[in-house]
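Worked problem 6 (solution included).
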Amino acid sequence: MKIISASKFCEELLSNIMNRGVLNLSSVKETVKKIVDSVKREGDKALIEYTAKFDGVDLTEIGLKVHEEEISRAYECLDESELRALEEASENIKFFHKAQLSEGFSVAPFEGVTIGQKYVPLSSVGVYAPGGKKLYPSTVLMCAIPAKLVGVKDLILCSPPSKSGKVNPRILVAADLSSVTDVFRIGGAQAIAAMAYGTESIPKVEKIVGPGNIYVTAAKLEVSREVAIDLPAGPTEIVIIADGNANEEYVALDLLAQAEHDENALVILLTNSKSLAEKVNNRISTLLRRVDREETVWKSLKNNGFIVLVKDLEEAVKLSNLIAPEHVEILTENPDEVFKGIRNAGAVFLGEFSPVALGDYTSGLNHVLPTGGYARVYSGLSIRDFIKSVNFLRCTPMGFKRLKRSTVKLALMEDLRFHAESVDVRSEEDED
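Solution. The predicted structure is:
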């Protein structure tokens, strides 16, 4: 990794890093639009044709929907420890998201007037689960469990089939543990289009969530005028803030853990200790000897791996907030004190026994987090992504009298006479 000063980092690199979320989809936009339009127009026929073309699978006889028997057999493909890990993760994710549940609220600004909100779940949600080189059954849990907890009735999942026509058993088990309603063996941009517009086999949904490749991301943006979507998913990111007390082994491995996700992953250590910087760099060099130079982790560190020397932890926090990363890990003598200054992060991990990997899998936190600097204004996936709020007002005659004069005055100021009359007429009835 490159060890550089904070001043050089700010002068040469910070601007590009802060603008990393700008997506260039020009290379796939035309192809994706063609796929989306075909699925919208031809439904299942287009899905079958694209699955044969891109996945090498003929779904004519096997069908698009994954049946219960195939899901049941999927459990037999996992060993006991794999199933136990998914079940533990599932229970902890449920525990964390149950704490977010609320039916709404009502308040009375004064006697006779009650205002508030009630929360209503979306009727239908579609989850996309990649099925290529990287499989993320944990992401299925993260996307589906919060939706089901709030009461989403129809929760479907699309995932591309293997050459045998089967959806990966780990994905199927995760979907079953999450109470997904139906699973379909469709991937890519065509799956996103199917969920957005509906086909003979796949129902139209109100919102689509879940990560995917550049074609999936482009498709989600293409259909976003028709359905709600989550944030476009970008390469994973970590900023570690560490002082001289940090364990270089922990720091090195936590950086490498993010680097192995994606060759464009952003991997940054901010430290006020030159000694730690050198130790971490040396330790990473040693650990990389057992990894082929062509592997993702090497490319990631070469492209976007930095060790930045800051003058103090206050400067580290300032830089971290400017970067607004997906993950911030704080490995300092007093992590809670540093945490007070963190404003922009998808999730924060405090202390040496809170590595990001625990948040990725089993702690219960949701790992679907804003990347590309979106953490400046967006939050991670939660139950709020699957509900809408409905405002309500209830006035008694006393409350009405309290509000009527100002309401009529404001309506007349805006030259909306019937607004004013709709209030005045009630005043006349009250006076009668």
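Discussion: Residues 55 and 162 are 7 Å apart (CA to CA).
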